[in-house]
Amino acid sequence: MRKGSKKVFTLSVVVLLTVGGLTGCKGNSSSSDDSIDITNVSYDPTREFYEAYNVEFAKYYKDKTGKKVTVTQSHGGSGKQARSVIEGNEADIVTLALAHDITSIEEAGLIEKGWLEEFDKNSSPYTSTIVFLVRKGNEKNIKDWSDLIKDGVNVITPNPKTSGGACWNFLSAWAYADYLYIGDETQIRNFVTKLYKNVSVLDSGARGATTTFVENGQGDVLIAWENEAYLTLEEHPDEYEIITPSISILAEPSVAIVDDVAKKRKTEEVAKEYLEYLYSDVGQRLAGENYYRPSNPEILKEFSDVFNLSINMVTIADFGGWDKAYEVYFQDGGVFDQIYTQ
């Protein structure tokens, strides 16, 4: 269903080289009579999707208002991106990997309370899940999470301290071990500890981990966002395989208006339009074409030949919600730190 992906990938790299790591460089107003500039601070694997989406949104907004809108993109590990906004990267919009990263921006006073209910589906216009990417032939015969703890298996995954995708990876592994050991926390911890002992590289973001695995040739298996794995298959046909584990997680990337910045720059109206258009049929189909799962169930069905719609997925609710999960597993001194330091 995707078209012109190689061209899109090249364009996204140019954008990153130009605008990646923007920090507080916008003026107090981005508007003129006929043009508007906004910044979308996002996480690693959304580059290609928002390259395509920004073109369609600009057309839509021009037709509706007569104004030209230009969207600047910034990408990196989700946690790192959230901190950059808190520290002065003037985002009108954030489209991050998990709700907790946006909550941290809210707690810094930049986003108003209630943002999670501002848009449909808990402000998650598309979803994803976690899969394994292996090289063609699957030499280590990796089929499920239990294969990742075997001796001699080299695992690549990003760092949960900086990457939202890595947090989803960790919780997926934990959910599998929880099912395997019927809630015995000692055995669950031992399982996840063994897995991370097999991790040779902890990149700061999901795209960096993909580069380590695909471009640098390291590792036997990449724990990956589903969309990132499919993009790799598209860019490198006949070189890789996707393995769907028996248990994964419903990953819900979240979106929000950075109210403090949008009010200052007078971009509240266009920022809201930008995020609402993600739920349109155009936005939903673009998400599917870029290997994100549309939140619209009818449009999701259109991609049933791409996605495994019967995959067994836990949800963040099974961990008590993101605030609790982050506090238990990813805060300094939490379970991940305890496991990794071993």
Quick structural overview:
The protein has helices spanning 5-19, 47-65, 78-86, 99-107, 120-123, 164-180, 185-197, 206-214, 226-235, 259-265, 268-276, 281-289, 297-301, 322-330, 335-341, and strands at residues 35-43, 68-76, 93-96, 126-127, 130-135, 155-156, 199-201, 221-225, 240-243, 248-249, 254-257, 293-294, 313-314. The chain has 15 helices and 13 strands. The protein is globular and about 65 Å long.
If you had to describe this structure to a student in words, what would you say it looks like?
The chain is of the alpha/beta class and 342 residues long. Helix 2 (47-65) runs antiparallel to helix 12 (281-289). The protein contains 15 helices and 13 strands. The protein folds into 2 domains: 35-127 and 252-302, D-Maltodextrin-Binding Protein, domain 2, CATH 3.40.190.10; 130-250 and 311-341, 3-Layer(aba) Sandwich (D-Maltodextrin-Binding Protein, domain 2), CATH 3.40.190.10. Helix 2 links the parallel strand 1 and strand 2. The strands form 4 sheets. It has a 5-stranded mixed β-sheet. The protein has a 4-stranded mixed β-sheet with strand order 2-1-3-11. A two-stranded antiparallel sheet has the order 4-12. It has helices at 5-19, 47-65, 78-86, 99-107, 120-123, 164-180, 185-197, 206-214, 226-235, 259-265, 268-276, 281-289, 297-301, 322-330, 335-341; strands spanning 35-43, 68-76, 93-96, 126-127, 130-135, 155-156, 199-201, 221-225, 240-243, 248-249, 254-257, 293-294, 313-314.
